[in-house]
Amino acid sequence: MTIGHWIGGRVTGTDPERSGPVFDPATGAETARVAFADQEAVDAAVASASEAARTWRRTSLARRSAVLFAFRELLHRHADELARIITAEHGKVVSDAAGEVQRGLENVEYACGIPALLQGGFSENASTAVDVHSVRQPLGVVGVISPFNFPAMVPLWFVPGAIACGNAVVLKPSEKDPSAAMFLARLWQEAGLPDGVFTVLHGDKAAVDGLLDHPGIKAISFVGSTPVARYVYERGTARGKRVQALGGAKNHMVVLPDADLDLAADAAVSAGFGSAGERCMAVSAVVAVDPVGDELVARIAERMAGLRVGDGRRGCDMGPLVTAAHRDRVASYVAAGQRAGADLVVDGRDVAADGADAGFWLGPTLFDHVTTDMSIYTDEIFGPVLSVLRVPGYDAALEVLDANPYGNGTAIFTASGGAARAFSEEVEVGMVGVNVPIPVPVAHQSFGGWKDSLFGDAHAYGPDGIRFFTRTKVVTTRWPDPSQGGVDLGFPRNG
Q: Exactly one of 112, 165, 280, 316 is catalytic; which is it?
């Protein structure tokens, strides 16, 4: 079976000539092929979206909102089915996939309020007999390039808001788990969205470059690794596009001596190993402030021993990694950490997956006494590897975080309101959790980091999303009396 593109409200491009494999990570079996777009497919996708955008932008806010509400109901009704699709191609456990869909639903619900979100401003008699009003108008056709780790949630960060604002969207999902995007396309169609307003274009770098270079694409939203985010931002902006490119992360969790260590250990395990660590908001570095290191590491290791690794459809706690190549890459970091001299407390390379003879398995892994020059700390591993660093005090912990080139998310565990407030103000990171290990903002806020975790000046979804997918137009109006005519070459004055 070949998974084709979704263009003009139907599946196209199912010729397996240019395609890539799709695997079930829990078994290692190839379950499908996915089409890879060439330039002809890119052009067809953008042409279809451009035609649809001309009509959709003129569709009333009431009608757009009705489609969003219908899509929300369909997504809610089919949430379990979508979660199973995600698990089959990504590998995360079904409960985690269900949580992903639920968080995506929040953004659909936010976009349902588009009549209020697009309200403009009006100034009566701004100058004598002159009125001024502002409106937000859609950009046209926008591209969304989403990663493998959240095949439903990340598209739902961008697509509902972009569509609600009156744009048409071309989504390029990850070729590793493409079926969730196709499932969403069918729900959009069932909800009454006109054909062409939502397009799914599969592929590799050629498809990405095709969208970045195409003059019909007015803006790009991207989530992925920092090197690729930088590439997308530079190539897209060089061609005059508006670009928001969310990059990688090295999320820290600071544990102060007054913290509840049981809660901190629970949080470290949950945030470090959920979705096998394949989250841009996963905690990958725990900064233990003296003297809690020994006790904290012991409690983390104790909880790790109880984790059940196996097929995500069988009630396990943690599933496989997405591909064999990625599994091998993460395992190479475990070996590198050993060579660098870190203490390997728990080695996940020899994990026995529950009920699985094959698949892309790597168990939860814990390092202690990690230093900031080791590759297991400097690099975004994107797997179930948790590193513990030891520091003598709060100031030293803050220095570690601020010296790191990433600035996506961080957390502090403490019982001190003063320490939490100071940390929230001082740390150079875009999203902060106080006794919250994964501080992903709710839908009516906006998601995004600082430093090398974000390229562009707009965060994802929420108010920033509405601003990103629209441009402001200001209209100045006067209905003068004929007696007020006459030529005046002076610059207009208010008065």
A: 280
* β-strand partners of 2: 33
In three-state secondary structure terms, 122 is: strand
Encoded tokens for 118: 């697009």
Query: Two tokens at 57?
Result: 């932008």
Residue type (1 letter), 456: G
**Is 280 a known active-site residue?**
yes
Three-state secondary structure call for residue 357: coil
The pLDDT tens digits for 137-150 are 999 999 999 999 99
Q: What is the pTM of this model?
A: 0.95
438 three-class SS:
coil
Contact between 301 and 345 (Cβ < 8 Å): yes
Residue among 409, 392, 408 at smallest CA distance from 256: 392
Give the pairing of strands 283-289 and 431-434. Answer: unpaired
Rounded to whole angstroms, the Cα distance separating 105 from 153 reads 8
Strands 385-391 vs 365-368: parallel, antiparallel or unpaired: parallel
Task: Give the span between the Cα atoms of 490 and 453, in whole angstroms.
Answer: 48
For 54-102, how does the pLDDT look when each residue is reduced to its tens digit (9 = 90+)?
A: 999 999 999 999 999 999 999 999 999 999 999 999 999 999 999 999 9
Q: Which of 404, 490, 396, 420 is nearest to 453 (CA)?
A: 404
Element (H, E) at 108: helix 94-111
Q: How far apart are CA 465 and CA 108, in angstroms?
A: 12
